[in-house]
Structure formats: C-alpha cells, structure tokens
Amino acid sequence: MNRRTWAAAALAALALGGAGCGRDKTTCAAGLTYCFGACVDTSSDPSNCGFCTMKCPATAVCSGGGCRCPTGQILCGQTCVDPQTDANNCGSCGHQCGLGTCSAGACACSGGATPCAGSSPECVDTQSDPSHCGACGVACGLGTCSAGACACSGGATLCAAANPRCVDLQADTQHCGTCATACAAGDVCSAGLCCQAGLVNCSGGCVDTSTDPAHCGGCGVACVAGQSCSAGHCCTTGLTWCGTSCVDLGGDPAHCGACGTACGPGTCSGGACSCAGGTTLCPLANPRCVDLLTDERNCGTCAHTCTASQTCSVGMCCASGLTNCSNVCVNTATDHSNCGTCGLACSASQVCLGGACQCRAPTPLGCGTNCCAGTACCTGNTCQPAHPNGLGQNYYDCNPLGTPGNENTYSQQMALAAAVAWSENGTTTTLFCGQAACVCRTTPPPSPQDTAVWCYTQTLAGSGAHSSVATTVCSVNCPTMGAGIPFQWR
User: Fold this and answer.
1) What gap in Å lies between CA 89 and CA 94, rounded to an integer?
2) Cβ-defined contacts of 468-475 (< 8 Å, 24+)
3) Is the pTM of this model over 0.90?
C-alpha cells in the first residue's frame, strides 16, 4: 500500500464514521476517540490509526495518526519490507531478482544466471528464458527457448534479425511474406502481402472485398453479370446493400438516400423524402418526416427535444400527463377551464373531476351546466326553485314560487310537497278551513304528535298554521281559527 492507496483507505474510513466513527453516548477522556465500544488514541492505535477502522499493515506502527514502517523499511503493497535484502523488492517495490539474491539493494545473480539490467526479474537463464533467449532482451515471441536458441511453433517462422525471433509472415507488418519485408506505415499484412488498410490479399493482389465484384465479401466470391458488389454483397446493379437486403436508395422510404435513413409518413424520390400531409421534413431527424405536434424529439420545431419526463402535446413539451391548451400545460382531468378536453369549461357551480364537469353537495343534481338541489331538472335544464314551506324547510318542484293570497299560484300538489318537507314520515289528510281547501300533516307516534296545515285556495292560499301545543286535531290549526301559530308558505 503506497501513500496514495493509504490516502484512499483513510478517506473510506472517514466515510464510515469520521473522527467519531462508531460513536454513541459514551464520553471519552480528552485526546481519545470512541470507536465501536472502546476509547482509543487514534494517533498511535495501529487498528484505528488516524480514524476508526484504519488498520496499519503488519509490522507497521501508528505514529502521529499515520501508518509508518520501521526505520530502513518501505511499504510495498500491504507489507513493510527491507529493500536492501528483499529479493522480490530489491532496491524498489516490485523489482525482483529472480535467480539471485538481494544485497545492499542490488541483485546478485547465482547458479549461472545472467543479469539483465532493467528487467524484472533481473537474473535470468538465457538458455531457457523466452524473453531473454541467448542474450538479454532477445525474445522468442511465437516459440520457446532451448539451449539459448528460439524454437518456433504454430506456423511461425524464425527470422534471425527479428525481435521477437519467431514471427507470423502472414500477418506481421515488419516481416510480411519474408523476414526482410516490412510494410509501409499504415499498411497491413494480408496473407503475406502488404496492402493498404481495408484491402485483402486475394491471389497475390490487394482488393477491396466490399466493392470488388470478383471478390465480393471474400476472395473468389464473384458476382454474376448484371450485379455489382455493395458492402460485400452481390446486388443488382444500381441497388445498395443495407443490412439485410439490396435496396434502391433513390426510392426506398426506409433507406432514402442512405442506408437506415427513413422517411416515415412520406415517400422517397430521387433519394430525398417528400412528407405526407400533417408532417414536416426535419433534415436531421430519422425518420425525416415528423409530426411536430406529437414528436418528442422534434416538438414544435425540428430538433427541439423534450426531456425524459415530458411528452409533446400539440407542439409543446409538457410534463407527462399534462395537455397543451392554448400554450399552457394543464391537467384536463381537473382543470376547470379545460375539463376533459381543451376549451371545455365547467360552470361556476361545477368542478372538474376525472375529466368531467360534475356537481357536488349541496347542489348534486346536474341540469346541463347547472348544479341544482331538488329532484329533477325543469324545462331548458333549469333548476327547480326552492319553495319555503313556512316551517324552516324547503321543497322543490318546477312551479314558480307561490304568491300568498293568489290561489292561481298554488296547487294541492305544492301543499302536499310542503307538508312532506316538514315531516317526511307523517300522515296527510285534507280539510277545509272555511271555504279554503287545505292539507294537514300529522307527525308519527310515539313521540308527542303535532300537526300543521297548509291552505292552497281562496284568500288563504299560501297561508298555514302550526299548533303551539302537541295535538292531532287538524282543525285547530286552520288559519281562520287563530289557535295555531300562523305562517306563510310559497
């Protein structure tokens, strides 16, 4: 571990817990740090050197919060070594002596080994080492070393002046075809012949197998009459090979002008795209013809790209789920002015829920764009008016409010509805108060029963009375009797 590796390890330890790694509620004495159950001195603890969990290598000591090797040793990998005597780190980390020993920081070869300065290992057997065969630095390459001479293998050829000695004359640019033939810079060695890059040796000549009709795709593969070689495939003359088939770049809408250039919703003529109605030609797009209203890579204008979280809505990039309505991105599921679709506004009494204008309590009934209380819609989708029954409740029907004293504006049906609004579960009877026809409603037992009367004809139309004490006798509440508490209803 060198200084840089040590620094990386120290940063990792800091990420785990910093100066207070493993700290809890325990309070340590001054100068100590709490590290996972113990108070330690990070300036000298080899297991927590500088930081909690920062462990020094074997034989190293922790001094001043840093790991240090003993005097005379250096750190190689994760071990402190003596570069004066260590045969694997002689003079410096990684310098091996090989067939020798290390003394005073220098390799001393033994057993007939040869010192090869600058190599590691430094002491080698030039009789068998394929990297130093017969002499330092002489490599065998595609062969082995025996008795100080290279023995080539696998079709390789021995070139006495080459290094490495064993080479492939079919592919080696420095020894192409013969040991002494070197190819020019940038050329390749193809089957033992120097050729320009991209060309292949076919029967002693350098050819381009992507275009040569006599060697199309490979040496000796000839196209028939009327064909040409395109990208290593024989195609009818005038056609081009594009991936899987031969195509006409002048008229193919999937390969218009060049392989892979698609027109999309358009046609190809003369190698150029003509876009269909509603689409626009974007020269850098693929396909070329795009709908600027919906294309997320060409939204509103060519090359204007929406982000990954956006969609193209009517030529404007909007967050996913929103719709462009008059150049504003809205949620048509909840937008009051664009409910379900752009421009569809809900009325003042409605709310937009799930893309539909809806009514809510206390006016839950939808009559066209009106939100109404009541039980039904009136002519022209108007709301039923609220009719006060004189006792604090309302009833609803499509009749206009009655005018007290005008029997033409009342009916028995209105009187019955007013009575039911007062006591939903009571019983109803009819009676005459003088000459006026009236309706009486009695509350149900067992609680103290009560009655009220609503008159709808003669001059008593719109008048009523409610008993001041519990009673089941309707007649006492006739407005003409004066016994009940009078009220007017509409």
Assistant:
1) 5
2) 472/442, 474/429, 474/431, 474/440, 474/442, 475/431, 475/433
3) no
